[in-house]
From TrEMBL:
Matches recorded under PROSITE patterns: AA_TRANSFER_CLASS_3 (PS00600)
GO MF entry, a single one: beta-alanine:pyruvate transaminase activity
InterPro entries, A to Z: Aminotrans_3, Aminotrans_3_PPA_site, PyrdxlP-dep_Trfase, PyrdxlP-dep_Trfase_major, PyrdxlP-dep_Trfase_small
Species, as recorded: Phyllobacterium ifriqiyense
Keywords: Aminotransferase, Pyridoxal phosphate, Transferase
Family according to the record: Belongs to the class-III pyridoxal-phosphate-dependent aminotransferase family.
Descriptive protein name: Beta-alanine--pyruvate transaminase
Length: 441
């Protein structure tokens, strides 16, 4: 068959990411429009976006200010290189973002996604130690059940075996500390779990093994999102900070999910009162409208690169689309929207309702844990009877279809609802989670 004869509705050509392509293409679920908290499907159904897209549409869909800014920007300056040139909105946005995070996180490097932000942060960490004359500090430490995107750096420090096993060892010189999920002691915790601060001491063990002189950085999600909403035990992040400072190891918070208001504070940095050396972000920076990411770096890190001759490039790293004008315009309008509507702290007003509603599902069949913080929550279910080998929790929003989870999809049997949309509280997402659990029971 010629390519044109295949027709425009052929689904075969698109190799879909993180998707069971064969299954999807037999029964496609296509989204054709979106407004506020709802999608419209190709067959006319209204679908609740109970997970804010892929945890990224923090202001909801079709927000007028963002739409307008993108339309205007694309007509005015559709592209400008960021290498040896610049455009005003990239500088404006960087300054505005830097002002949102506590000092010394005063510098911003633009990327196009969370994966790129992670790889950028890891590279900055390696280059920083080298710039300071500590060239042996090259090891990177991640954590079990961490998700840091799909670049080679991200999968290496990440802790999801499914993302790693097919791709060899990717980066060498990586080690991991244990995850903090402890059902035996912390099941049904509301907010930060009481037990487990000592999980942070794993880092001391890893340092004793490899020696601090060889370790560049530790990366963790302040709240692990994609592997099932793992909330850090009280005091855990603070202890990680102390250990890193003691051994001159950079601490990186991956805030691709927690950034831009999901916990009820602008960033997890604010929520937990712990300031790392680098912060990776993406998703909510443009409310998902245009791909963009940003890495925040401390002044100490930035200044370490600024000691050479003026005419030399300090960091051999960057993307064709770093600080893309349309993405910058979208981000600036998104920040305006967040500010005008109080969305960066709105989750703190809604979190009690969300918490009580989620925990009301305790006691339903197969439910073994419920946990929540800000507007993130998870309902953990017993392992699937027919697929006991499937013990991992895939991170992506599973319950996208309104009204019905697919009972044959093992993933529904582990984690029912990942997060609410933070634009406004939505009773139907909790009702929906309840229906899913009941159906699966
Ligand atoms: N880091 C974290 C914590 C994430 O949750 C994600 C995506 O879900 C990423 C990195 C990767 O982001 P992206 O898919 O934009 O590359």
């Amino acid at each position: 068959m010629s390519k044109t004869a295949m027709g425009t509705n052929n689904l075969d050509a698109f190799w879909m990411p993180f998707t069971a392509n064969k299954q999807f293409k037999q029964n496609p679920r296509l989204l054709v429009s979106a407004k506020d908290m709802h999608y419209k499907s190709h067959d006319g159904r209204e679908i609740l976006d109970g997970t804010a897209g892929l945890w990224c549409c923090n202001a909801g869909h079709g927000r007028p200010k963002i739409v307008e800014a993108v339309q205007k920007q694309v007509a005015e300056l559709d592209y400008a290189p960021a290498f040896q040139m610049g455009h005003p909105k990239a500088f404006e946005l960087a300054a505005r973002l830097a002002a949102m995070l506590p000092s010394p996180l005063d510098h911003v490097f633009f990327t196009n996604s969370g994966s790129e932000s992670v790889d950028t942060a890891l590279k900055i960490a390696l280059a920083y130690h080298r710039a300071k004359g500590n060239g042996t500090k090259v090891k990177l430490i991640g954590r079990e059940r961490g998700y840091h995107g799909v670049g080679f750096g991200g999968i290496s420090v990440g802790g999801i075996s499914g993302n790693r096993k097919t791709f060899g060892n990717a980066l060498s010189g990586i080690d991991h500390i244990r995850h903090t999920h402890d059902l035996a002691r912390n099941a049904y915790t509301r907010g930060e779990p009481e037990y487990g601060v000592e999980f942070a001491d794993d880092l001391e063990k890893v340092i004793a093994l490899h020696d601090a002189s060889n370790i560049a950085a530790v990366i963790v999600e302040p709240v692990a999102g994609s592997t099932g909403v793992l909330i850090p035990p009280k005091g855990y992040l603070k202890r990680l900070r102390e250990i890193c400072t003691k051994h001159d190891i950079l601490l990186i918070f991956d805030e691709v999910i927690t950034g831009f208001g999901r916990l009820g504070a602008p960033f997890a940095v604010d929520y937990f009162g712990v300031v790392p050396d680098l912060v990776t972000t993406a998703k909510g920076i443009t409310s998902g409208v245009i791909p963009m990411g940003a890495v925040f770096a401390s002044s100490d890190i930035y200044q370490a690169f600024m000691n050479g001759p003026e005419n030399l490039i300090e960091l051999f790293h960057g993307y064709t689309y770093s600080g893309h004008p349309v993405a910058c315009a979208a981000a600036l309008a998104t920040l305006d929207t967040y500010e005008e509507e109080g969305l960066l702290t709105r989750a703190s007003e809604l979190s009690d309702y969300w918490e009580n509603a989620l925990h009301a599902l305790k006691g339903l069949p197969n439910v073994i844990d419920i946990r929540n913080l800000g507007l993130i929550g998870a309902i953990e279910l017993q392992t699937h009877r027919r697929r006991p080998d499937k013990t991992g929790i895939p991170g992506f929003p599973q319950c996208i279809r309104k009204g019905r989870a697919d009972p044959h999809d093992w993933r529904h049997h582990r984690l029912v609802s990942a997060s609410d949309n933070q634009q406004r509280t939505d009773r139907s997402s909790v009702r929906y989670a309840r229906r899913c659990v009941e159906e699966l029971g």
